[in-house]
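Worked example 3 (structure in, sequence out).
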């Protein structure tokens, strides 16, 4: 226990603050350690064992024998036991400084089981030893199992057919199999354990890139493929291909690689395994296959014929693209469909029967019709053969050719051959073909025999055993000139240059034959025979001669007639020239007439003698409101107002009877809209050169507006006349009847004035003076009005009047005022005119009176003269008075118009109005020229006698 205390110092804990604590007893510690422990003294006696020791070995401290007995008991293996004893003894000799190695032994426990236990022997200062054990049985068993597994895995890798290697997490090579050695030529020893990745070099040469194993281990996913292709990445596995061009002396090699990451049980990467496979042969084969397929396809698709394959049901499984040109269908539209559906309905049954034969093993060509995508018909030829694998029909393959054109040509040839045969039979020529080498007949038609009257010989000739020279000899007796005939027959045989000859042969029986001989050559110009055409032209000859006679006779007659005709013709030519000239003129005049007719602003019509419109112009349509067609239908009397028809017919009758050549009248048409239109119409008769009327021509003018205006004028003139008469009546009555009471008023006023002269007051006298003065003025006014109104009503008939006398009278009656004013009146010689003398007197009286009245301060000077102007005499009365402003020159002639008040100049404003009325009654006119402050000249005209 002392040692224990000492030991306790070793293992005890020191707490300086609390002071030294008592040491923990060794047994307590040992009891609770997880390892089996024991204390052994120098004599090998077990002084203490802990619970774990007891558990392991099954012995308590007191049950364990001391010394070598312990070894005998627990070490079943002789050798191990000896070694353990010697080691133990050696340990016992060691001091405490030397720590012996832990040692593993197999021990047998009390329960008989063997265990692998690791012993550690530690020398204590007391000379005792502490034995610490560790039961490694389970660990070692596991390790052994693992090693066993590893071994087996290595074996598997070793014998894998693909080159395979494994690297650990540090990229050290830990496996390198035989196939790898074979592939690379690098031995296992050279590479195992190396971490410098040198192993990569021989694989990839110049195309070096990180190995798949490297990539998968570092889990690089940078998308960089480098030299790899077809990279396939799955979780923890990388599959890729690489082509190494330098390998196999430049032929290159394809390698396929698969790398898989190896994970330890905690999921961390423990390494990677990469398998490589040489797929060069596979790739080459694949490439070859692709190329040959391409070649095959190009071949199939480049030929014009269609290649196809169908299954045993007739369904199309392949068809080359050229089918499109033949059928209009694209291959994809055809694949899967049964080809019978494209076969012409008439050929379908036969094609199906044939197909069954093919399915049963037959093969060969077949021709039938197919329908294309547009409904067109094609003749095609197929050559089909079955493809069998292991005796089983797989499909039918074949070639399809469009032979439509060929078929058409064949048909054309057949047709043309048939045609030729038919032509041959129908030919009017007898012909034969002779082989120039053999001199044999190759062909002749029936007519040939008939011409020579050898119907019986035809068959013999056709058998080709009859020579041409025989033929010549045969017919020589019936030819008129045999020698010439025989000789001529040889023309073509001798003369190589002669290609064709035509001649005539006369026969003894009087017939004439026409012959055509020609050399027949092939396409290359080689002579292959001679063709002879014969025609019996006896009848033709006769006819020709007959004809010739007729012709001569005819020619003579023709000659005679020609001379006659030439003469007649000359006359005709002259006539034609004249006629042509006339025709041209007629056409021109027609054209002119048409233009005028159509464009005239007045209505025009050509009317037949039986009262039909033959032609009407646009203006007539406008006037009547009818269309041209309607007018032609209705005729002139169809549109005439019923009241005007009778007169029209009568006038037309006159024209036709020649009483007159034309007439004009106003008449009415009934327009289409029912309204009446007044027209002024002129109708003329058109006569032919012999004077016979052949139609009428009418011109029509719409005078409705004119008529209306005239009517209005007539009405207003009548109204005016009436009102004028009323006015004149009124003026006359007024002036005449008013005079009497006025005279009474004046005379009584004057009487009153005289009576009251002395007594009355001056104002009354003045008023009476006004009454008298007003009355006198009214008297004057009434007188003047009477004069004015009488100008028309009281006018007398005109008579030749000497104006000199009239003026002289006037000056006499004005004598007082002339004298009073000192006026100088110069009268120039005046003419004799046709007039109402008293009215002419009034004119001069008023004009000379005014010249005196409207004087200036100085005495008036008055010039009276007359001048001839055309058919008129123009009289003038000139003064030097006050003059009139130009704006009043017209106004002064109007009644009651005055320029002054009565206070300035006495007057009524009627004098000049009377002058104008009288002058106008005489067919003349009156006007004034005046300058204010200088004087006025009044002019009036009268018609000269
Ligand atoms: P009355 O003389 O009675 O007024 P008239 O009819 O004779 O009427 O003349 C109309 C007007 O014309 C006159 O009032 C006068 O002003 C003007 N007149 C006529 N004659 C002359 C003249 N010779 N010189 C100037 N003025 C004249």
């Amino acid at each position: 226990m002392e040692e224990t205390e000492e030991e306790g110092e070793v293992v005890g804990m020191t707490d300086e603050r609390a002071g030294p604590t008592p040491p923990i007893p060794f047994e307590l510690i040992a009891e609770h350690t997880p390892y089996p422990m024991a204390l052994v003294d120098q004599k090998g006696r077990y002084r203490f064992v802990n619970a774990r020791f007891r558990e392991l070995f099954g012995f308590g401290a007191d049950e364990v024998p001391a010394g070598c007995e312990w070894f005998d008991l627990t070490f079943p293996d002789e050798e191990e036991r000896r070694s353990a004893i010697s080691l133990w003894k050696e340990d016992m000799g060691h001091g405490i400084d030397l720590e012996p190695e832990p040692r593993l032994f197999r021990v047998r426990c009390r329960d008989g089981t063997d265990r692998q236990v690791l012993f550690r022997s530690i020398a204590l200062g007391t000379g005792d030893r502490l034995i610490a054990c560790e039961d490694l049985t389970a660990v070692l068993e596991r390790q052994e199992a693992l090693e066993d597994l590893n071994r087996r895995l290595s074996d598997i890798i070793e014998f894998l057919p693909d080159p395979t290697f494994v690297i650990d997490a540090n990229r050290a090579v830990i496996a390198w199999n035989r196939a790898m050695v074979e592939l690379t030529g690098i031995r296992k020893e050279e590479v195992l354990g190396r971490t410098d990745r040198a192993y990569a070099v021989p694989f990839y040469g110049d195309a070096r890139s990180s190995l798949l194993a490297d990539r998968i281990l570092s889990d690089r996913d940078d998308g960089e493929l480098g030299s790899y292709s077809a990279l396939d990445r799955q979780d923890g596995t990388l599959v890729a291909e690489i082509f190494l061009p330098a390998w196999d002396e430049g032929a290159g090699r394809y390698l396929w690689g698969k790398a898989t990451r190896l994970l330890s049980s905690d999921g961390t990467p423990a390494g990677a395994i990469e398998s490589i496979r040489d797929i060069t042969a596979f790739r080459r084969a694949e490439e070859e296959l692709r190329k040959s397929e391409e070649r095959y396809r190009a071949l199939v698709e480049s030929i014009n014929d269609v290649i196809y394959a169908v299954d045993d049901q007739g369904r199309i499984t392949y068809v080359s693209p050229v089918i499109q040109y033949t059928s209009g269908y694209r291959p994809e539209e055809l694949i899967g469909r049964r080809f019978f559906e494209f076969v012409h309905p008439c050929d379908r049954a036969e094609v199906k029967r044939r197909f069954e034969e093919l399915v049963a093993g037959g093969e060969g060509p077949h021709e039938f019709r197919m329908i294309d995508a547009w409904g067109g018909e094609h003749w095609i030829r197929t050559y089909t053969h079955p493809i069998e694998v292991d005796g089983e029909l797989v499909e039918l393959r074949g070639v399809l050719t469009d032979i439509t054109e060929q078929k058409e040509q064949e048909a054309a040839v057949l047709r043309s051959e048939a045609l030729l045969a038919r032509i041959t039979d129908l030919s009017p020529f007898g012909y034969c073909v002779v082989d120039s080498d053999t001199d044999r007949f190759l062909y002749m038609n029936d007519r040939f025999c008939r011409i020579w009257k050898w119907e019986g010989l035809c068959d013999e000739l056709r058998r080709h055993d009859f020579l041409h020279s025989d033929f010549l000899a045969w017919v020589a007796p019936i030819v008129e000139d045999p020698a010439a005939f025989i000789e001529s027959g040889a023309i073509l045989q001798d003369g190589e240059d002669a290609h064709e000859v035509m001649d005539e042969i006369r026969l003894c029986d009087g017939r004439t034959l026409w012959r055509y001989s020609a050399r027949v050559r092939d396409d290359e110009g080689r002579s292959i025979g001679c063709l002879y055409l014969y025609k019996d032209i006896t009848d033709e000859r006769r006819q020709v001669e007959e004809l010739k006679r007729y012709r001569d006779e005819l020619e003579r007659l023709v000659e005679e007639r020609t001379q006659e005709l030439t003469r007649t013709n000359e006359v005709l030519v002259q006539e034609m020239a004249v006629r042509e000239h006339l025709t041209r003129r007629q056409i021109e005049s027609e054209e002119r007439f048409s233009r005028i007719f159509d464009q005239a602003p007045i209505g025009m019509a050509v009317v037949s003698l039986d009262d039909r419109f033959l032609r009407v112009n646009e203006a007539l349509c406008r006037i009547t409101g009818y269309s041209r067609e309607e007018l032609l239908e209705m005729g002139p009397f169809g549109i005439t107002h019923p009241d005007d028809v009778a007169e029209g017919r009568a006038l037309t009758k006159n024209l036709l009877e020649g009483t007159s050549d034309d007439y004009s009248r106003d008449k009415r048409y009934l327009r289409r809209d029912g309204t009446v239109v007044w027209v002024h119409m002129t109708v003329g008769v058109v006569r032919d050169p012999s004077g016979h009327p052949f139609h009428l021509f009418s011109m029509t003018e719409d005078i409705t507006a004119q008529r209306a205006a005239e009517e209005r004028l007539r009405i207003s003139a009548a109204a005016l006349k009436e009102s004028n008469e009323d006015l004149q009546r009124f003026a006359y009555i007024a002036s005449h009847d008013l005079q009497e009471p006025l005279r009474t008023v004046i005379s009584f006023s004057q009487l009153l004035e005289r009576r009251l002269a002395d007594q009355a007051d001056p104002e009354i006298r003045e008023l009476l003076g006004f009454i008298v003065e007003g009355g006198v003025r009214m008297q004057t006014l009434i007188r003047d009005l009477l004069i004015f109104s009488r100008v028309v009503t009281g006018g007398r008939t005109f008579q030749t009047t000497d104006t000199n006398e009239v003026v002289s009278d006037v000056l006499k009656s004005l004598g007082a005022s002339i004298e009073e004013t000192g006026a100088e009146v110069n009268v120039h010689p005046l003419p004799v005119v046709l007039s109402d003398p008293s009215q002419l007197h009034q004119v001069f009286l008023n004009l000379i009176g005014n010249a005196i009245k409207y004087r200036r301060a100085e005495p008036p000077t008055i010039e009276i003269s007359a001048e001839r102007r055309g058919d008129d005499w123009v009289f003038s009365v000139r003064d030097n008075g006050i003059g009139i402003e130009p704006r009043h020159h017209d106004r002064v002639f109007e009644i009651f118009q005055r320029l002054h008040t009565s206070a300035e100049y006495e007057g009524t404003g009627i004098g000049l109005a009377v002058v104008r009325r009288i002058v106008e009654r005489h067919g003349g006119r009156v006007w004034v020229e005046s300058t204010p402050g200088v004087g006025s000249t009044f002019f009036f005209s009268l018609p000269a006698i």
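Notes: The chain is about 45% helix and 25% strand. Residues 1-18 have pLDDT under 50 and may be disordered.
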